[in-house]
Design goal:
This protein has 220 residues and is mainly alpha-helical. Helix content is 53%, strand content 6%. The N and C termini lie far apart (100 Å).
Length: 220
C-alpha cells in the first residue's frame, strides 16, 4: 500500500498548480502567436506604433511620404466632335412639339395666360402689403388693445387660427420690440406686451432676449 505523508501531498499540489500555470501561459502565448500572424497577414498596424513612427519623422520625411501617398482625383470635361454629332442627330430625329402632342389625348390646346401680381398674391408668393405697412398695422392693433399703456398678454395677441399667421405675427412683434414700438416683459409663465405711443429709438437693441417656442396648439 502506497502511503503519502503530508509533505508529499503539499509538494504534489504545488506541482499540479505549476502545471496548470504553465498550461495557461502556453495557451496565452499560442493565442498571441495566432493573433500576430493574423495581424501580419492583414497588414495591421498598431495605432500607438504608428504614432511613435510619425513623431520620429522629420518634416522632410513627412513631406516626402505625403507626396508619395497623394493621389488627387481630377476630371476634365470638354466638348468633342463625336458628342456634337450625337447631339445633332438627336435633335434632328426628335419630332416637333405638335407631333409629339398628338400621341397623347390632351384635348384642345390652351395658350398660357399671363401671371400677374394679383395671382402671385393669391398664391402666397407675394404679400399684398409691404413689411412697413404690416408692421404699422400690427402696432396700431396693439395700441388699440392696450389703451392707456395697459399690457396685453403675448399669446392672446399673437395667436391666430392659422399657424402660419401666428408665426408671422410673432415675427412682426419681435420687430416692434426691437425698434422700440413696444416693450416686452416676462412675468413667470406669462409674457406681456406694452405698446409705446411713439417709437423709442433709445430702446432699440434691448439687452433682454426672449426665445419663444411656438407650438402647434398655440395657433388653434
Amino acid at each position: 500500500m502506497l502511503r503519502l505523508h503530508a509533505g508529499d501531498l503539499n509538494r504534489l499540489e504545488d506541482h499540479l498548480l505549476d502545471m496548470r500555470a504553465l498550461t495557461g501561459i502556453a495557451r496565452v502565448v499560442g493565442l498571441q502567436s495566432s493573433q500576430l500572424r493574423f495581424q501580419s497577414t492583414s497588414l495591421f498596424l498598431d495605432p500607438e506604433l504608428a504614432k511613435q513612427k510619425l513623431e520620429g519623422l522629420s518634416r522632410q520625411q513627412l513631406a516626402e511620404f505625403f507626396l508619395l501617398s497623394w493621389h488627387p482625383v481630377t476630371e476634365l470635361e470638354q466638348l468633342v466632335m463625336p458628342a456634337v454629332k450625337e447631339a445633332s442627330e438627336y435633335w434632328k430625329k426628335m419630332l416637333s412639339f405638335w407631333e409629339r402632342r398628338t400621341k397623347f389625348d390632351l384635348g384642345p390646346f390652351a395658350a398660357p395666360e399671363a401671371f400677374g401680381l394679383g395671382d402671385a398674391t393669391s398664391s402666397g408668393l407675394m404679400e399684398d402689403q409691404t413689411f412697413t405697412e404690416r408692421l404699422q398695422g400690427l402696432w396700431n392693433e396693439l395700441k388699440s388693445r392696450g389703451k392707456n399703456g395697459e399690457s396685453v398678454e403675448y399669446w392672446s395677441f399673437v395667436r391666430s387660427q392659422d399657424f402660419r399667421e401666428t408665426v408671422s405675427r410673432a415675427q412682426l412683434v419681435s420687430f416692434l420690440v426691437s425698434y422700440g414700438y413696444a416693450s416686452m416683459e416676462k412675468m413667470g409663465e406669462r409674457i406681456l406686451l406694452t405698446p409705446n405711443e411713439t417709437p423709442e429709438p433709445q430702446r432699440e437693441g434691448s439687452p433682454h432676449s426672449f426665445p419663444i417656442h411656438i407650438p402647434w396648439e398655440k395657433a388653434a
